[in-house]
Amino acid sequence: xxxxxxxxxxxxxxxxxxxxxxxxxxxxxxxxxxxxxxxxxxxxxxxxxxxxxxxxxxxxxxxxxxxxxxxxxxxxxxxxxxxxxxxxxxxxxxxxxxxxxxx
Amino acid sequence: xxxxxxxxxxxxxxxxxxxxxxxxxxxxxxxxxxxxxxxxxxxxxxxxxxxxxxxxxxxxxxxxxxxxxxxxxxxxxxxxxxxxxxxxxxxxxxxxxxxxxxxxxxxxxxxxxxxxxxxxxxxxxxxxxxxxxxxxxxxxxxxxxxxxxxxxxxxxxxxxxxxxxxxxxxxxxxxxxxxxxxxxxxxxxxxxxxxxxxxxxxxxxxxxxxxxxxxxxxxxxxxxxxxxxxxxxxxxxxxxxxxxxxxxxxxxxxxxxxxxxxxxxxxxxxxxxxxxxxxxxxxxxxxxxxxxxxxxxxxxxxxxxxxxxxxxxxxxxxxxxxxxxxxxxxxxxxxxxxxxxxxxxxxxxxxxxxxxxxxxxxxxxxxxxxxxxxxxxxxxxxxxxxxxxxxxxxxxxxxxxxxxxxxxxxxxxxxxxxxxxxxxxxxxxxxxxxxxxxxxxxxxxxxxxxxxxxx
Lengths: 103, 455
Known about the structure:
The structure holds two protein chains of two kinds.
Chain A: H1 4-55, H2 61-75, H3 80-102
Chain B: H1 2-34, H2 54-57, H3 66-75, E1 78-80, H4 90-97, E2 102-107, H5 113-121, E3 129-134, E4 137-140, E5 143-145, H6 150-159, H7 163-173, E6 187-188, H8 192-205, E7 207-209, H9 220-226, E8 233-237, E9 246-247, H10 249-256, E10 262-266, E11 269-273, H11 277-298, H12 303-319, H13 334-338, H14 342-366, H15 370-387, H16 395-413, H17 418-439, H18 446-454
Parallel strand pairs in B: 1-2, 2-3, 6-9, 7-8, 8-10
Antiparallel strand pairs in B: 3-4, 4-5, 10-11
Helix pairs in contact in B: 1-14, 4-7, 6-11, 9-12, 11-12, 15-16, 15-17, 15-18, 16-17
């Protein structure tokens, strides 16, 4: 029979491991999901902005600049924060082009 | 809304389960620490302890001065001081002594400290081997002889027989082999007259005290604690004559008074008969004499005191729970009752927690709402219908709408949250709404179009 402290040790390790896994796994999943969601939004916004650019006859320098920044951020990939920033830039560029077109 | 409350309840239940598991674990671990072996022996109401009171333990006997005793021992190999009680089988002892010069000094029991010291100093500067016996305690040189089994104690205390002790001492001092000796004495059935006299006394007040016995009264509290079921019967006899058969009252009285504890005292020796006698008598005798034989052999305790202490010992044995006698009522301790359930409770809590933790992840998959898919399909169909009609003004919004729809499809396929899909679909719907507005075709506004499709 193994000594009783061994049982407690193994039990304790299992308990701690279970606790770490049960908190860490959902958290990692949530983070990954948030990142992918943010990039999905950002890509859709960049697409929309480039469509707006193509539809606009005039040059809008500021919008070009914003979109270029958004695309370069997207090219670098990154976390949810970077994706949010790229989405915000693309949306602003999109709005500028639409205003210019309606103009 | 309902979905949200369900989710919130689930979350709440999940963490409650985890908390419960932790509480259960902590309670269990703490309980492990406090669960000492709790033998009821400790709660025994006996007030055990033989008294060291001089008045009780000392006799009137006294001993001569040391020079006088030395003279006596020089003149006679066996000196028996007045009041001494120890007896032995002289022939057996003589055989062991053989040619050696061994003297034996026998003193009475119950000497005070000074008297005892006087007796012990007699042997100090004598050349012969001197065995000193005080009461029934035999010493010689550095050795003390003690009985170590029931027959030994029985003959020592019931008849004052110390043959075994002397033989053992002599053979140790002379470095010889121990001869095999039976230290028991012969029993005999009590005669009808003896038995009648004892039984008559027992019938009237439950106690028989023979001439010469020193039992003044039975300690009633101790007796009630030791034998709570039935009143015990007590027979007190003086120390028996050495070498004669001893009347064995126990079995005879048990036949006369079945199911009643019978306690028979021969001098300081206590016999138990009656219920559970086979297990109980040996155990109580061993417990009692292993502890007190030394004192009992040196001092002169009246039987009242010996019986009191013996009864306390019996109470202790009873409270140790060895004999399935009813113990006093002890309320059920909820801790000991629930303790075995705690590990299972803990396991249940953990299983519940884990199930609730993984529940949402698995349920998300299949139920990815038919709603968004239907909407996606509807809007895609709308774009195809509209695409033929658009002009330069409405083209960009259509293209943007198609882009958003693509993004929504991708989000659906890569299992992004429903909220994200809905947001992308909302964006697409807005773009298509713009398209329809620019075309001036209300029927192609997504709201109207989708409603028409659904109908």
